[in-house]
Amino acid sequence: MVLDSKTPQGPLAEKWNKYKFDLKLVNPSNKRKFTVIVVGTGLAGASAAASLAELGYNVKAFCYQDSPRRAHSIAAQGGINAAKNYQNDGDSVYRLFYDTIKGGDYRSRESNVHRLAEESVNIIDQCVAQGVPFAREYGGLLDNRSFGGAQVSRTFYARGQTGQQLLLGAYSALNRQINLDKVEMYNRHEMLDLVMVDGKAQGIVTRDLISGEIESFAGHAVLLCTGGYGNVFYLSTNAMGCNATAIWRAHKKGAFFANPCYTQIHPTCIPVTGDYQSKLTLMSESLRNDGRVWVPKTKELAEQVRKGQVKPGDIKEDDRDYFLERKYPSFGNLVPRDVASRNAKEACDDGKGVGTTGKAVYLDFADAIHRLGKDAVQAKYGNLFDMYYQITDENPYEMPMRIYPAVHYTMGGLWVDYNLMTTVPGLYALGECNFSDHGANRLGASALMQGLADGYFVIPYTLGDYLAGIGPKPVDTSHPAFAQTKKDITDRINKFLAMKGTKTLDEYHRDLGLIMWEYCGMARNEAGLLKAKGLIQALKVDFWKNAIVLGENEEMNMSLEKAGRVADFIELGELMVDDALNRKESCGGHFREESQTEEGEAKRDDENFAYVAAWKFKGENTPSELHKEDLIFENVKLTQRSYK
Amino acid sequence: MSGNMNLTLKVWRQKNAADKGQFVTYKAADISPEMSFLEMLDVVNERLVKGTQDPIHFDHDCREGICGACSLYINGRPHGPKQAITTCQLHMRSFHDGEIITIEPWRATAFPVIKDLAVDRSAFERIQQAGGFISVNTGGVPDANEIPISKVISDEAFNSATCISCGACVAACKNASASLFVSAKISQLALLPQGQPERYRRAQAMVAQMDKEGFGNCTNTGACEIECPKEISLTNINRMRRDFYNAKFFKEEEIN
């Protein structure tokens, strides 16, 4: 199969506008004859569901949480980028496009990224109209701050709770459509499979998480807006319920999975304290605006700090290594996430880490408090400081924070064309669950932008083109494919419920996470990846033999929910390792130790790897098939990324 | 490990909505003070599962105090003994060795128990659906900076908007009133210029739905404000009442 990205012809800045005109439209009176299924209600899902319902389509929306507003977009802290140039500091659509392409280490599609930058400005307008209380200046206009990987201030924010406020905006738009009966909302429903009719996506099978009922729903198109798969690593900044089941099931039904190895390890998270740890908490990247990252200059001093013999505040300036400022003078503490993470790991591997485990570096606000005053620092970051204090019992106004990298975001996801359609006709992927816009590394404050651009401003146009093509012929669940898929899912559930082994699902999940973190985490090499592949395969065999699943289907059953998710994580983990093995270059968040510059920076191989790796599922325990979409750069020159 | 605690948990177990439910006592041995409260429950659950006993069900998701999924009435207080945090942010260092901890679900007619500690909060959804929005479609809106908003007003709207819909206010209230939650949403939009056109319709619609769901009335005891993990202020309730009564007794064009 040749992957056709459907990238429009013509000059970069005109592609999207011209394309929108060329797309087929659905007549207003015909729109109500179509049903669209939206799975997931984070920024991408809620904005898509609301916008499509406003246009007149009938929408059925699904989320596993008890409310659409609890989707994990809610936890995004720092902000959302937009090329408004309100600060008069030289920003433009082209600069946002350029920064994003460069930040992604030249592994994303030019056309998609430019469209994202174009739509960024509309998102801010839309959110303000909905009543999102962004931070403002005393003059009444919107405030901005700067973020990693950019030299302009283009990030709009709502204290440290930007994701929450944006999601509440999209949720309110969704509620309005529920009230108007244009959206049927199904809370506490988990999608367990995709239903295919005549080669097209035409519905889903879900489990009601309260009653256990297995239901099927039909629609003319299915939109997956189900977020990332970072929980493959067990410990991540994702919510506990975030899972890959919807996209993994879709992958098994024919949707190609692109760049699964591209995972983002976020530099500023609160370090792990023990085996019981259930998740990791992010401290927003915005903190790097004012916080300075450092470790003690020598191993000996670090050792004393770890033993509690020396307090960080007592270490003299000369005995500190502000390693990001030293190595990257022009970007300093605001280098992109992948660079900051790797450098923190390096410092700790070098024996200079702090905290009782030695797996932490300092993020210090003493200078900022001295320069701006405690009140100003509190106004900017108060809630983050409080969050840190709650978890660690240490006061960051008095002591530097201890931070360490953690899995945060997955750039990989289902392969989509310019329309956001996967390789399965009628199946779309929006937001973090697709691979499209961030290449090998996502810049801060760009996830919110992408989720909302996809939902508010891309899918309302591109979906119409597909629906106009297939026509408003009614769809329902009477086709035998629905009954068959329901049966497959029921059989799978019964198989799980019959598993009466000795090892808990959390133990399997934790084991998988340790394998992934060790061999497919911040740094990867061939020997390690090969070892990981063997370990994951063995874990999978053991899982189906020895896992314990309790209870029955017809009740709220967290054990059964977990079983399905962990089984899928294990399979996806193996594909991530395959992809990391295949990509012998380093790029962005994917650091292959075999491919680095003399200074230890990631070294790309544009000659051999300037492509999207899209994997096709070929059957259980059968190697996946690699398809390549070549990345063509007509506007930017590929250079070795430098933040020095 | 040294410093670890041995605790006794009295946990509300209820198989489903129809079951009567009862307290069951569990030993939670060797609990680190660094654990979060929910991690402590994870550890207890792992031990239950190993003994093939049904784990204790509770709602939770982000575990960083923002999604509003977690609940739990701990030793008679929503979200436990500390102020301004959610249960997922509560750490075991707030308890001491040998302590007996009582864990219950939110108790309110409008929040029926689903299983154990998980309750049905869909009443909150229906209240928001009744009017918690500004009626604008996607696209065709003015440039964001064409609507200047005083920083003071914007900050105050933000304070109201930080409500996470967890339901602690209802659980804390002797009347099981949802006034703090509903008024926070009404206030956010009533404070902002964008929210003015629907201000009075919104207040009426949301209050009507709140009453329909079976929440009690507000009698100004203020327990909700004390227990709210996001410190939503009682002032919001005053704003809600003002808008509600204005809408009740005057025609919209007569207000102001």
TrEMBL record, chain A:
Q: Where in the cell is it found?
A: Cell membrane
Instruction: Give the reaction(s) catalysed.
Output: a quinone + succinate = fumarate + a quinol
The domain of life for this entry's organism is: Bacteria
Limits of the Fumarate reductase/succinate dehydrogenase flavoprotein-like C-terminal domain? 509-643
Q: List its EC numbers.
A: 1.3.5.1
In Pfam terms, one family for this protein is: Succ_DH_flav_C
> Electron transport: is it a keyword of this entry?
yes
Q: Which SUPFAM superfamilies does UniProt cross-reference here?
A: FAD/NAD(P)-binding domain, Succinate dehydrogenase/fumarate reductase flavoprotein C-terminal domain, Succinate dehydrogenase/fumarate reductase flavoprotein, catalytic domain
Q: How does it sit in the membrane?
A: Peripheral membrane protein
Active-site residues are R337 (proton acceptor)
Q: Name one GO molecular function term.
A: flavin adenine dinucleotide binding
What this protein needs as a cofactor is: FAD
Could you give a single Gene Ontology term from the biological process aspect?
anaerobic respiration
GO cellular component annotations of the record: plasma membrane
The record, for InterPro entries, names: FAD-dep_OxRdtase_2_FAD-bd, FAD/NAD-bd_sf, Fum_R/Succ_DH_flav-like_C_sf, Fum_Rdtase/Succ_DH_flav-like_C, SdhA/FrdA/AprA, Succ_DH/Fum_Rdt_flav_su, Succ_DH/fumarate_Rdtase_cat_sf
Sorted UniProt keywords: Cell membrane, Electron transport, FAD, Flavoprotein, Membrane, Oxidoreductase, Transport
Could you tell me which residue ranges the FAD-dependent oxidoreductase 2 FAD-binding domain spans? 36-448
Family membership, please give it.
Answer: Belongs to the FAD-dependent oxidoreductase 2 family. FRD/SDH subfamily.
Protein name, as recorded:
succinate dehydrogenase
Q: Which organism is this entry from?
A: Arcticibacter svalbardensis MN12-7
TrEMBL record, chain B:
Q: Which cofactor does it need?
A: [3Fe-4S] cluster; [2Fe-2S] cluster
> What is one process in the GO biological process aspect for this record?
aerobic respiration
* Pfam families cross-referenced by the UniProt entry: Fer2_3, Fer4_8
Q: Which UniProt keywords are given for this protein, alphabetically ordered? A: Oxidoreductase
EC assignment: the record states 1.3.99.1
Q: Where is the 4Fe-4S ferredoxin-type domain?
A: 154-183
Which range is the signal sequence, renumbered to this chain? Answer: none
* InterPro entries per the UniProt record, alphabetical: 2Fe-2S_ferredoxin-like_sf, 2Fe-2S_ferredoxin-type, 2Fe2S_fd_BS, 4Fe4S_Fe-S-bd, Beta-grasp_dom_sf, Helical_ferredxn, SDH/FRD_Iron-Sulfur, Succ_DH/fum_Rdtase_N
Instruction: Report the domain of life of the source organism.
Output: Bacteria
Q: Which residues form the 2Fe-2S ferredoxin-type domain?
A: 5-106
Stored Gene3D superfamilies: 3.10.20.30, Alpha-helical ferredoxin (1.10.1060.10)
The record's similarity note reads: Belongs to the succinate dehydrogenase/fumarate reductase iron-sulfur protein family.
User: What's this protein's name?
Assistant: Succinate dehydrogenase iron-sulfur protein
Q: What is the lineage of its organism?
A: Bacteria, Pseudomonadati, Bacteroidota, Sphingobacteriia, Sphingobacteriales
